[in-house]
Amino acid sequence: MTKPLPHDPYITAVVETLTAAGLEPTEHWTSDAELDRFRDDEYAGVAVMLDACLVWTGDHPAVTDAAAPDGLVLVWEHPAEQWQWAHSEANGRLEREPEFLPLHRWADPAAVVDVVRILLAGLPVPGGEEPRLWLHFVGARAAVDAWAAAEISE
């Protein structure tokens, strides 16, 4: 069994909301093993970050073939302040570096559903940041911040 991570409750809420909307990802996971690609200090290249990936493969019923023939991936990373996304290639790799979405890192799961629906339909992503935040984001943010502080002190 893997250890619980501080962003697990939020990602679980997002996946449950997507599932209730008929948009359950093909697969999803959370991790604390990726190198923090946002660092540019003495910890660059050694510090890890929290992340989550939500994947819709090309054969998922909600994926529009013309929009994403091999699927798409939604990415949540700490310390990034916004959700990101990219199309997948047939081998599962990302076609390009993920692009930022108009979704705050702690966006209300219903707002994530709205944006995923747009991405899966192949429509242009609207501009502006979504102001709706997850109901429990204050506690989750404190847990993630504590995790980050512990990583630096190790």
Fold blueprint:
Layout: H1 8-20, E1 27-35, E2 48-57, E3 71-78, E4 82-87, E5 99-104, H2 109-121, H3 137-153
Antiparallel strand pairs: 1-2, 2-3, 3-4, 4-5
Task: Explain the overall architecture.
The chain is of the alpha+beta class and 154 residues long. The protein contains 3 helices and 5 strands; from the N terminus they run αβββββαα. The chain has a 5-stranded antiparallel beta sheet, with helices on one face. The model has no long low-confidence stretch (mean pLDDT 85).
Shape descriptor reads: globular
Task: Report Rg.
Answer: 15 Å
**Share of helix among residues?**
25-40%
Q: Strand order of the main beta sheet, please? A: 1-2-3-4-5
What structural class do you assign from the helix and strand content? alpha+beta
Salient structural properties:
3 helices, 5 strands, alpha+beta, 5-stranded antiparallel β-sheet, single chain, 25% strand, globular, 154 residues, 28% helix
Gist of the model:
The chain is 28% helix and 25% strand. It is of the alpha+beta class and 154 residues long.
